[in-house]
Amino acid sequence: MTFTDTHCHIHESSYRQAQLAIRRATEAGVERLICVGTDEVSSREAVQFARKRDNVWATVGLHPHDASIGVAGIKVLDDLIIKDKKMLDTNVHVNNIVAVGECGLDYFYNNSPRDDQITLLHAQLELALRHDLPVVFHVREAFDDFWPIFEQYKGLRGVLHSFTDNMSNMERGVSEGLYIGVNGISTFTKDQKQLDMFAHIPSSRLLFETDAPYLTPAPHRGKVNEPAFITHVAHHLAILRSITLEELSRDTERNANKLFFLNK
User: Fold this and answer.
1) Spatial CA neighbour of 214 closest among 10, 45, 41
2) How many CB atoms lie within 10 A of CB 92?
3) FRET pair for 152, CA 20 to 30 Å: which of 130, 173, 226, 256?
4) Pseudo-torsion of CA 231, 237, 242, 246, nearest 10°?
5) Residue 219: cis peptide before it, omega within 30 degrees of 0
6) CA-closest candidate to residue 57, choices 12, 106, 92, 98
7) pTM of the model
8) What is the count of structural domains for the chain?
9) Which runs of E-coded beta strand occur in 9-95?
10) Could you please report the per-residue DSSP string of 189-238?
11) Whether the Cβ atoms of residue 187 and residue 217 lie closer than 8 Å to each other
12) Domain that includes residue 254, residue range
C-alpha cells in the first residue's frame, strides 16, 4: 500500500533536512513526491531537486501572491519546460516536469492586485495548453472569477489544490474534469460542511497532498509538515468515507498516475 504526495515544497532552500524527510516518507509508504514551484526561483529549484532523485517530479509556476511581477516570468517557465523536453528527447533520464502551477487567484490575502492575478493566470493556462501539461490550481475565495476564466480554455486538465471550498464548487470542479487535492486541513477543520464535502469527493477525482512544510495535519499540529504525514490524511479520510486505506491507496495512486503521467 503506497501513497503519492502530489503537492509539497520540500525542494525549497528554506526547507531543512529534505533528504531525511524523503527517507521518512518512503518508510511510511509515501513513495512518490511532486515538488511544486511558486515563482521563478522555486520552480528552478523544483526541477533541479527532482532531476537528482528517483520518484520525485516537479511543477513550474507563478503563485498569485507574486502576480505583481507580471508575465515576464512566463518566459522562464517556458524555457524550463522546453529544456526538460529536449533532455527527454535525447533519452537522458531525468525526473521531468509534470504540470504548470501552482497558479490561480487568491482573493483572501490579495497580495497582488486582482487584475495582475487574472493576467498571470491567463498566461499560465496558455502555457499549459501549449505544452500539453495539467495545471495545479490555487483558488481561494475567487471562484466567481475563476470559473469564467477556466471556461475560456478547452482541453484544460488539472487539480484544485488544497481544496476547502463548498460542495457546489467541488461538484463543479469534478464536472469540469478536475481533480480535488486534499491535505492536512481535512484532519483539523471543525467546519461540518467542509467535512461533508471531503466525504463526498468522488474516489475517481481524489488526490492526496501535504503542502509541506505548511498545513501540518493532526496529530502533528505545531510541527513542520513533511510528506510522510500523508498517512494521517489518508487515515482520517478513510474513517470519514467509511472505506479502507487500501481502497484509498488504490484510487489516489491511479488518479495521480492518470493526471500527471507518473508511470514512466
Assistant:
1) 10
2) 10
3) 256
4) -30
5) yes
6) 98
7) 0.97
8) 1
9) 30-36, 56-60
10) ---HHHHHHHHHS-GGGEEE---TTSSPPTT-TTSPP-GGGHHHHHHHHH
11) yes
12) 3-260
Q: Which residue has the cell 467542509?
A: 194
Q: How far, CA to CA in Å, does 3 sit from each of 11, 29, 249?
A: 19, 6, 6
Judge if the upstream peptide bond of residue 213 is cis by omega within 30 degrees of 0: yes
Sign of the CA dihedral running 67, 144, 175, 251: positive
The enclosing domain of 118 has a CATH number of 3.20.20.140
Model confidence over 87-118: pLDDT tens digits?
Answer: 776 655 555 899 999 999 999 999 999 999 99
C-alpha cell belonging to residue 192: 461540518
- Any residues with CB less than 8 A from the CB of 35 and at least 6 apart, and which? 8, 9, 10, 11, 45, 46, 49, 50, 56, 57, 58, 59
What's at 80, amino acid-wise?
L
pLDDT in single tens digits along all 264 residues of the chain:
999 999 999 999 999 899 999 999 999 999 999 999 999 999 999 999 999 999 999 999 999 999 988 899 999 999 999 999 887 766 555 558 999 999 999 999 999 999 999 999 999 999 999 999 999 999 999 999 999 999 999 999 999 999 999 999 999 999 999 999 999 999 999 999 999 999 999 999 999 999 999 999 999 999 999 999 999 999 999 999 999 999 999 999 999 999 999 974
Phi and psi (nearest 5°) for 184? -60, -20
Give the neighbor-by-neighbor strand order of the sheet with 56-60.
3-8, 30-36, 56-60, 97-106, 135-140, 158-160, 179-182, 206-208
Cβ-contact 173, 146 below 8 angstroms: no
